């Protein structure tokens, strides 16, 4: 009897030892095809996404929503973005995004040639899957995300007056807190995704807003809160996925003014007329599933409608009008 128990113990110990060299069992399954994937990455997965976006603005939207061309000016706005996603649990995901920007403003008539590279504002958040089913895929998620002001908000040192600047402002200088509800449904080789996102933008004193009446210089701004509605239809053709997406952005009025005394410093802020509005963008793109752990994407985003350009060159408040070309590489382990 003792010899038999010893033999069983040795066999059991060998199984445990060998398991360390086998494939991970704690990791959720990840489909090779994009159309079959959930909206969370899955437990145990780590993804690094690298994205490069280039927009050459050929104009702007006027106060009536009409397309207008720049007079001899050319505005190039690029974003380089690194995104980390980690599957914390089967239905929980953490993500973090850090962007950088390279911008260029040129005007041969005025001799303008301004170029600058700098950090953007990082964003981090949490995604929780509320419902899922497979074969076909159904995924419903809730997401919370926070954008921290990190990029340079100083337009210059005002030598020569408050209207002169030497730096390009690449941030609103204010924090954002957002909440998202989204869903995805697979119908054979077709996937349909839709969602709604609300972003509350907090007020803050910023260096690019100048108050001259009382010589306080630093003004306070609250960019308008945002509501996003988006929908995307994808078609999977083997390892290639084609998609068409639409995004509608509703923007409330931006408030500016001086800080007020007391606990809440935004009581003196006044709305800027015409700073609210609606923007519509259409995106066409493809995603190539090279392997289960490597994807390559290419997107083209075209603005269909926009708002009056009142805070140039701060793209996060009022974007310029131009086609955006983006490439992406996703690496997973």
What are the main properties of this structure?
333 residues, mainly beta, 12-stranded antiparallel barrel, 5% helix, globular, disordered N terminus
What does the secondary structure layout of this molecule look like, with pairings?
Layout: H1 2-19, E1 46-61, E2 67-69, E3 74-89, E4 92-107, E5 112-119, E6 123-133, E7 138-147, E8 176-187, E9 190-201, E10 204-211, E11 217-222, E12 226-237, E13 240-251, E14 255-257, E15 270-271, E16 277-291, E17 294-305, E18 321-332
Antiparallel strand pairs: 1-2, 1-3, 1-18, 3-4, 4-5, 4-6, 6-7, 7-8, 8-9, 9-12, 10-11, 11-14, 12-13, 13-16, 14-15, 16-17, 17-18
Describe what is shown at a glance.
The chain is 5% helix and 56% strand. It has one helix at residues 2-19, and strands at residues 46-61, 67-69, 74-89, 92-107, 112-119, 123-133, 138-147, 176-187, 190-201, 204-211, 217-222, 226-237, 240-251, 255-257, 270-271, 277-291, 294-305, 321-332.
Folded structure, characterized:
With about 325 residues, this protein is mainly beta. The protein has one domain. The protein is built from 1 helix and 18 strands. It has one helix spanning about 1-20; strands at about 45-60, 65-70, 75-90, 90-105, 110-120, 125-135, 140-145, 175-185, 190-200, 205-210, 215-220, 225-235, 240-250, 255, 270, 275-290, 295-305, 320-330. A 12-stranded antiparallel β-barrel has the order 1-3-4-6-7-8-9-12-13-16-17-18. A 4-stranded antiparallel beta sheet has the order 10-11-14-15, with no helix packed on it. Strand 4 and strand 5 (about 110-120) form a beta hairpin. The longest helix has 18 residues, at about 1-20.
């Amino acid at each position: 009897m003792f010899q038999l128990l010893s033999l069983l113990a040795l066999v059991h110990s060998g199984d445990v030892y060998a398991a360390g060299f086998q494939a991970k069992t704690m990791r959720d399954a990840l489909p090779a095809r994009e159309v079959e994937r959930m909206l969370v990455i899955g437990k145990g997965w780590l993804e690094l996404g690298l994205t490069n976006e280039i927009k050459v603005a050929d104009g702007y939207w006027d106060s009536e929503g009409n397309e207008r061309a720049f007079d001899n000016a050319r505005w190039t706005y690029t974003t380089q973005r690194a995104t980390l996603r980690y599957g914390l649990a089967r239905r929980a995901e953490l993500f973090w995004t850090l962007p950088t920007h390279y911008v260029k403003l040129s005007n041969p008539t005025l001799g303008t040639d301004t170029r600058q590279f700098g950090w953007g504002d990082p964003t981090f958040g949490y995604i929780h899957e509320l419902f899922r089913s497979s074969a076909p895929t159904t995924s419903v998620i809730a997401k919370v995300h926070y954008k921290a002001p990190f990029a340079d908000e100083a337009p210059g040192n005002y030598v020569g007056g408050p209207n002169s600047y030497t730096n390009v402002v690449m941030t609103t200088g204010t924090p954002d807190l957002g909440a998202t509800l989204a869903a995805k449904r697979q119908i054979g080789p077709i996937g349909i995704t839709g969602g709604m996102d609300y972003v509350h933008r907090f007020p803050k004193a910023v260096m690019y807003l100048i108050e001259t009446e009382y010589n306080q210089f630093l003004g306070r701004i609250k960019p308008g809160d945002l509501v996003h509605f988006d929908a995307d239809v994808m078609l999977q053709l083997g390892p290639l996925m084609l998609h068409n997406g639409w995004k509608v952005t509703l923007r409330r009025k931006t408030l500016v003014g001086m800080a007020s005394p007391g606990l809440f410093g935004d009581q003196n802020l006044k709305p800027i007329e015409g700073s609210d509005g609606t923007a519509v963008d259409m995106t066409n793109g493809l995603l190539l599933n090279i392997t289960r752990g490597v994807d390559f994407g290419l997107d083209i985003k075209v603005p269909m409608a926009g708002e009056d350009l009142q805070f140039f060159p701060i793209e996060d408040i009022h974007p310029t009008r131009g086609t955006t070309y983006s490439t992406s590489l996703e690496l997973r382990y």
